[in-house]
Amino acid sequence: MNESECIPYRQTGYFSELILDYLDHNPQLQNYISGFPEVQSFKERIESRQSFSAEKRQILADSLLQQYQETGIEPNPELLEQIESLKSEKTFTVTTGHQLNILTGPLYFIYKIVSTINLSKQLKEAYPEYNFVPIYWMASEDHDFEEISFINLFGGRLKWVNDFKGPVGHMPPFGMGKVIDELEEHLGPGKQAEEILSILRNGYHEHPNLSQATRWVVHELFKSEGLVILDADRPELKQQMLPHFKTDLFEDRIHRKVQEQSDALGQKYFAQVFPRPINLFYLKPGLRERIEYKDGEWLVLNTDIRFNESELKSELENHPERFSPNVVLRPLYQEVILPNLAYIGGGGELAYWFQLKSMFDDQAVPFPLLILRNSVLLCPEKWRNRLADLNLDPRELFQDLNDLKRNYIKERFPKDVELKDFDEQLEKMFEDLEAIAELTDRSMLGAVNAQRQKQLNGIENLRKKLIRAEKRRSSEQMEKLERAYLALFPKGGLQERHDNLTPYYASYGKGLIQRLLKDLDPLDFRFTIVRL
């Protein structure tokens, strides 16, 4: 394997101005955050979390142990030590969250987890007197099955068809065996292919729901790294959110605070989420629907379920597990139940966190540091060699395909085809003609300028024709360039948002994950090109 290299995010063209300004420590963003993303900022975050109670720590540790037992995972010594350490006032968490995409979904899910693990290790080096536990928060309460139901593979798509309604974490994985069989056909034979297929089969065949299946798979991939996997769809954890659920249901403060901050942020940037007067869903088997207030009652949309105030308060107290936070309240839930210091996410995720700090302040919950996850381009040797044949570097691919082709041809043109000398000679000639017209008859200046433009247009048209001729001459190179580009930037977008882990695991095995753990630095905010 080869060394990795990095490219500044600003040079990639794939990141929003908000995220780039944040990474540049733009002071205009200070009101929206708890600090800029650097090791020194964690000192203050640690201090802000000293008040996290021993009772909450005990509940968290007990819940996690029970979750692993229910999944049939016997925690190894490293994992057991991590969970037990959460009871200590010296232990804090670093968290990432993600949907329960089948078969691990897009590659960036893996990069999120690696970023979280590596940041925890870096913090231990910087603050050795404390412990830092990486957490993967499973978005088990999401109900958008379509988003998680497929993976892209070798130019096609593997899809799980299921008509289950309700939170995806509750879904029984019926039919996933067929999807994995289809995956096996695509991956073909090989020890490493068999290894990843075995992990997936044990995950989806041996567990009753998607939440447990996902926990199994992710645990198998990272079990030696101390990663702790949390499903927060638990009554003992939601009990801690009751004061905040009540605020959301019976007061307008959360909606108002988020809207005010979103409006302020929206003066320069784009808002990612839009708060509602009520930011909770109601959960029951096969059901996750929004709650709305109307005419003195709280209605569960698309059902006949309704509550008056006393009934709703009773339901909250007796069944907190039936209330599910939306995208606005989920971050608050996370920070209420975890002694958390930082959230690691992609650019789109972090963008909506910038809308939330005033809500956290209003609810007296510490706001975490926001860390942009690592972004990665995996560049296998086959495609590196193809690029080398074209005298191209992977870093040059961070542009639109048409721009890449145009720039490629221009840079490799014979100088006489560029016609630059002709431009300069024409300009010089018409400057001389202008001077003569100025001395003899100023009324001729218009004719001189018209003739200049005509000649320049003629040269430009000739240049375009020559470029087209060069394109035809080098069409074979263009085809090679396009194949390499689309292999590394599928459909013209980032590989990490399209490709799935399994074909890379089939080629490189566990060594790929170890390579990512070695190469990715979550506080080096540059795009990483991993040369495989």
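Above is the first protein from milestone M3; the second protein from the same milestone is given next.
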Amino acid sequence: MTPTLDELRQEEDSLHLSHFDYATAWELGSSLRAKAVEAGLPVGIEVFHGSAPVFLSLLPGSTPDNVDWLRRKRAVALRFHHSSLYMRRLCEAKGVEFAMRYHLPASDFVASGGAVPITVRGSGVVGVVTVSGLPDTEDHAMVVAALRALNEGHSRIRPLVS
């Protein structure tokens, strides 16, 4: 089931982190990768801290095309400070196509679920985590679950620096 705009907004508000550094970015990417490997998912995963790519992994069954989807989803999350799924649902609710509404080239931006901005309490958006390879709502759910686990301290890998 695709979440509503209200559900997505509440979800975004619940995912604010207390801190985010390179070690945390690596932890987040590693956690996502471990879960994807365990489930045999053909996904690409990336984590950016600001404009710096800290983590990138393509798992068996994914293709170089997933890297392009990662880039275009990331661009949406960073530009609008909302998840790429939120932006898709917003445009659907308004009955407009994303590219037409915002006059952005589809070659650089795609409103398809899977990219979630990383927000630090008191600082705002400091990065983005993106998954590509599954249906977009599943990409999104995978990212949200990893952010939630990181936020709650349930990840198997602990950050080296806090």
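Note on the second protein: Confidence is low (pLDDT under 50) at residues 154-162.
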